[in-house]
Amino acid sequence: IMLHSTLALSLLLIAVSSNLAMAIKKEKRAPQTLSRGWGDEITWVQTYEEGLYQAKKSNKPLMVIHHLEDCQYCQALKKAFAESEEIQEMAQNNFIMLNLMHETTDKNLSPDGQYVPRIMFIDPSLTVRADITGRYSNRLYTYEPQDIPFLLENMKKALRLIQTEL
Q1: Which positions carry the signal peptide feature in this UniProt record (predicted)?
Q2: Which of 20, 61, 107, 128 is the most interior residue, by most CB within 10 Å?
C-alpha cells in the first residue's frame, strides 16, 4: 500500500508541475497585442515615428502594413503572412515591423491612394521605396494571399537595396 500511494503522489506531482510549467510558459508569452495576428513572434513597433527611428538606428528597412480589421482581403493576406515561416523569420530578424489600422500623415506612404491591404518599405535613410511594388498596376502596394512568394522576393529586394545603396 505504501508503494502504491507513493507512486500516486509522484504522478500527481508530475501532473501538477507540468501544468505549472505550462502556466508559467503561457504567462511568459503575454498576448502580443501589437501583432494583431500578423505574427506573434515578431517585435512590432507601435507608431510610424518609432518605426522610422528604429530603422535608422538599426540600419534595417521598415515594413509598414496598412490594414483594417473588417477588410476580408486584409484578413486573407494576414493569414497567409502569418503562416509563411520564411516571411515570419525575415520579419523577425531583418526588418523593423509596423502594422497600422489608420493612415499616417506621411503622404509618401499613400502615393497611389489609401487602400488596404498596402505594404510599403522604407529604407534606413528614411526613403519610402516606391520601387518595391506588388503585382497590380491599379494598386501598386497591395498583395493577395497567393502573392506571398512575391512579397518574400520584395523583402529580399529591400534588404539587397540597403547593401548596395546605403
Answers
A1: 1-23
A2: 61
**Cα(83)–Cα(38) distance, integer angstroms:** 9
For residues 46 and 5, which has the higher predicted lDDT (pLDDT)? 46
CA distances in angstroms from 139 to 81, 129, 151, listed in the order given: 19, 15, 14
pLDDT at 125: 94
Nearest to 117 by CA among 152, 159, 87, 73: 73
In CATH terms, 37-159 corresponds, of 3.30.413.10, 3.40.30.10, 3.40.50.2000, 3.40.630.10, to 3.40.30.10
Distance (Å, rounded) from C-alpha 37 to C-alpha 11?
38
How many residues comprise the chain? 166
